[in-house]
Amino acid sequence: MNPTTDPTQQAGAILSQVEALGERVGRVREAIGRVIFGQDEVVEQVLVTVLSGGHVLLVGVPGLGKSRLVEALGTVLGLGTKRVQFTPDLMPADIIGSEVLDESEGRRSFRFVPGPVFCQLLMADEINRASPRTQSALLQAMQEQRVAVGGQDHALPRPFHVLATQNPIEQEGTYPLPEAQLDRFLLEVVVGYPDLAAERTMLLATTGTAEAPPQQAMTADELIAAQALIRRVPVGERVVDAILDLVRNGRPEISEDELVRRHVAWGPGPRAAQALMLATRARALLEGRLAPSVDDVAALARPVLRHRMALNFSARADGVVLADVIDRLVDRLG
User: Cα–Cα distances in Å, from 40 out to 32, 54, 59, 69, 123?
Assistant: First the structure.
């Protein structure tokens, strides 16, 4: 037998690579933690998304450090970062770029000028303030990893990640993302207020004469290799069964749960199961484990499912909220 094809040796090679990656990711998490205070769960879920190769939607009130998190993430991971403030008058060309007419040596030709989407880490600030046309242009780029202008395809840089933000308290004059577009985000992460100790630390660290800048702990090439390796991490049958049980019982047409059948208008599609499969692997690695567990599925249920499900009128009338439904599904996992 060729030793390079020996399953035992292959498993050992993957194991050593996962261990080395776990140490590197630990340094990334530590570097971000030096500049982002009191948001450990948010940082974890954002790193899970990036390691899984996906995009994340951050929902929170202003002033909680969402922009700072994106800046720090770009520096620590060695990614080229750009930021776009979404407004109602923003056009698709302002995001993806456009063609301009050049005249040189008496000849005229069109030249493509790339927009801000041509970066490795894009912060789409208040994405729900842009028109549906502009939203769809960005979300198409997220899905296809390229843009088409003037009949020509232009590939986006690799890796390419979008961290979009939404303000949950100012909904007047906004354009909520349709469900099909929300599904393009691997996780929806709710950013809450820090606790007292974290807010005190942040207050003292950010209002002095010098603020410690984040330090790079990984390169873009290392991140691409990490994303490929995470897809090779083995997942046990028990975890696979838990993912399928969670997702399929969230669909009112086939659910075994009476609460879901009565109060859920539509449930998560197969992309939710795919997101859980990747995200549980990444979370296990972040926690220093070599394989995901059912606990990872339970921990990621809310950020994976909350933007992929909707309640009906009966649920609102009875005071049922989506978090209660997801928790009920998690309880089934045991």
Answer: 10, 19, 15, 11, 20
